[in-house]
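Friendly challenge for the regulars: who can give me the C-alpha cells for this chain first? No prize, just bragging rights.
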Amino acid sequence: MCGIAGMFDTRGKRDFDRALMQRLNDIQFHRGPDEGDLYLEPGLAFGHRRLSIIDLSTGQQPLFNEDGSVCVVFNGEIYNYQELVPELEALGHVFHTRSDTEVIVHAWEAWGEDCVQRFRGMFAFALWDRNQQTLFMARDRLGVKPLHYAFLADGTLIFGSELKVLTQHPGLDRTIDPLAVEEYFALGYVAEPRTIFAGARKLQPAECLCVRRGHPIPAPRLYWDVRFSLDNPLSLEDAGHELVDRIRESVRLRMIAEVPLGAFLSGGVDSSAVVATMAGLSDMPVNTCSIAFDDPAFNESAFAQMVADRYRTNHHVETVKSDDFDLIDTLAGLYDEPYADSSAIPTYRVCQLARKHVTVALSGDGGDESMGGYRRYRMHMMEEKMRGAMPFGVRKPVFGLLGRMYPKADWAPRVFRAKTTFQALARDSVQAYFHSVSILRDDMRRSLFSADFQRKLGGYHALEVFRRHADAAQTDDPLALIQYIDLKTYLVGDINTKVDRASMAHSLEVREPLMDHPLVEWLATLPSGLKIKGQEGKYVFKRSMEPLLPHEVLYRPKMGFSVPLARWFRGPLKQRVRDAMLGDTLAATGIFNQGYLRHLVDAHQSGARDYSASLWTLMMFEAFLRSQGLAAPRVVAGEASLQGCM
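First reply, four minutes later:
Bragging rights claimed.
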C-alpha cells in the first residue's frame, strides 16, 4: 500500500519546484514509510511513498517501461498480475521486476485506456506517457483506494492519495463548498465526486481521467458498473456452493504477500467467514486481531474468540475503554474533510493493534452491501410493501400529516417509535431510503442552517446524490436499488474511506475479499429472495457458511462497531461538546443557526432527546475546521447541478 502525488502542466512544460513536490509527497509519509522517491521532467512531477508488500527488493516507484517513456505511480494491489505477465511477455514486453506495478505500464502500452478492464484489484494510479503527452489516472471499481485531484487556475493538475496532499499546494482554492456541507450533514461524509473544498474533487469508483497536454480537459469516464440482473436460476444449495468457491478464490488471491499477513476478526459474519476461508487455505495458523470493549453493551469479542478457537488462530485481543474519545482531533487530521462515522475510533484502534503483528490484514468489508446484510434493508423492504399497497397520491398527504403530528419518541420501545416510519411512507422509494440513512434529516438541516447559508445552497438537496445513482441503477427491484445506491455512496464515502485512512495511519494494508469485483458482479445476478428471506439478511451467505461457523456467530443480532456517544455527551464530554457547539469556530462560519445549536446541546444533555449522532457530526465538523486552520472559512454559493463536480 502506498501514497501517490503529482503535478502536471496541462498547457505547457513549466518546471515544477522540487521542494514543493517533496512537501506534497512527504505529507503522506504514513502511507509508505519504507521508501519514497520523486521523478521530475519539464511539465511533470511525480511522487511516491512505498509500503513494501510484493517484490520488496525491486518494486520501487515511480516505475518506468523499458525505454523510460511511460512512468507510473500506483497505490494498491493488482491481484491477477501473475496472470497478466505471461500475456504481456507474449506481446513482446520485457519485465525487470516481479512487482504488480510493472504490469500497469506494459498494460497501458498494450491496451491503452482499456488496460483498467484487465486489472482485478484495488488501485489508484497516475500514468505519464511522454510519447503521447498524456496523463492517465484511474480508480478501482469499488473505490477501495482514494484519488483526489484539482485543476488550478494556471493549468496545473495536482493529485494525491489524500486531500492533505492537495492542500499543501498554495494554488488550491480552499473555499468551502456549500453543497458538500449539505451532503455531509445528511450523510456523514462528502459524497464522491465532491470534496469539502470547492477547488478539489475525488475521482469516483471505476472512473478514469485521460488528459492530453494542450487539449481541452475532458470529464472523467466510467469504465465499469455493476448491473443487478437478478436472473440467476441457481437453487439455494447450488448458489451457496458457488458462493463459497468464489469467496475462496478471492481470499486466495489476497493472501499473496511477502510480509506478515493476518485478518481482522470482529465476531461478525463477514470477518468470521474470511478467517474461516483463510484457515482452509493456509498450512499455518492465521493471525487474527480483535478489539474488545470494557462496556458489555458494545463488546462482541466472545464471538470472535469462538471463531479463533475453532480455527486455532494466533489471536490478538486488546480491550478499548468505553471512554476512548481522545482521538477526535487525531481523526479530524486523518480524514482531511468532515467525516462523522464514530466507528472510526475502534477502527483506528484495531488497525493500531494489527500493525503490531502484521503488515497486511484481510477484512470483511463489503459483505453487507452485496449480500443484503443491513437491518435498514429489511425495514425498507417492509415499508415498500406498505407503499405498494396505497397510491402515492393518497400516501403522501395521509402519512405526511401523521409524520408531522406524531411525537418523536427516541426514549420509547421501538414499536412506539412510528414517526420515522410515517415520514418514510409519505415519500417515494429513493426519498424514503435517503430519509432512513440521513444523520440530520431534512427538517433538522433546515433548522440547523442559517438563512444566509440556505441561500448559498441555491435549492440544492443531498437527495440528488441518491437520485443520480438511482437513475443509473437499471433496476426497479426494491432491494437491488438500495444496494446499488449503497455501493456507490455509503460503501465508498463511509466504509472504504474509514478503513483506508485508519489503516494507512498505521502503515497497514487492508484487503477486502468481499469486494472482489467478479464476486460483486455474480452476487448481483442472484435474486433478492436469496439475500433477504423474511427477517433474515444475508440468507444464502449464512446458509453457505453453516458448515464453517458456529450458529451463534451466524444468527445473532448484528451489533456493529459502535461507541457510547449518548453517554459521552452527557458525561465526560459534556463540557467539550458544549464548548464546540457554542464556541467561536462554528459561529464564525456563518453556516449555522446558533439557537438551534443550543437546542441540540440542551435537549440532549437534559435527557429530553438523543441527539448524539447530530452532535458528533457537528463536533467532527468543528474539529475539521480547527485542523485546517479555518477559523473563519470562506463559503461560496454553490451550483445545484453536478456540473460543479467535473
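The first helix runs from residue 18 to 26. The longest strand covers residues 70-78. Your move, everyone else.
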